[in-house]
Amino acid sequence: MLQHTPLNTTSPREVKNGNGGHRRRHRPQVRNGQRLAALRALHAARSYLENSDWDLGMAAMSCGVSVRYVMAMLTLIAAENTTLIEHAVNDKVSVVGAGKAMKQVAKLVSAYRNADPVDRVAFAKVIGSNVLFDTLVTPAL
Fold this sequence. Notes:
Helices cover 60% and strands 3% of the residues. The protein is mainly α.
């Protein structure tokens, strides 16, 4: 009986696609210079703010993005920093990182917006007009 010896006697090799065993993504994450997940998160955050009966999970699921991204985008919207939102959408900064960085700013802005004019004056008196001007107005110029 004649035995057949295969031409390739080595074991079959695993295909790794040159990426350490990970497969390539089939869909692009950035299109026209804009990160698609950031755009979805922005849309989900705006939808959440417009629809009072929605919760974060519904907003995130409706746009196909994580709740964490929506929360980060809500923080950026609350901080009223449109430049940073544009940078996040244009893939220049991380959405989650920008949200973490702007968390305190968002709290300050919302506290200021929700304060009565009388409370704002009382705050300025407590802090002192010189300190208020030197620490807030001068650095912004």
